[in-house]
Amino acid sequence: MNRGRSGRSLGDRAASSGIPVDRAPDPAPAADDEGRHCWVRDPPETPGTWPGLLVEWRRGDDGWQGRVVYTVPRARGPVLVEAWLPAARLEPR
Q1: 80 with 65: CB under 8 angstroms?
Q2: Greatest alpha-carbon span in the chain
Q3: What is the pLDDT of residues 45-55, one digit of tens each?
């Protein structure tokens, strides 16, 4: 999620690399991505794109996940959400 990158997610870049998924390396996201603004795309139960803050990375069973915080509108006002989401749902901002 550094400036100057294509803006595509890690998952998108891996898919377009031409390397079969079963052989594709699963590189760690850059440590300096943490604490940066990002776009959260289609989180569970809240379709759409939301501005968020990437807090940290972890490697899950299905690949890299980012811990993010973001707000979503609700009937009584915005709600702050903290969640672990797949890297493919996070975009640089």
Answers
A1: no
A2: 48
A3: 889 999 999 99
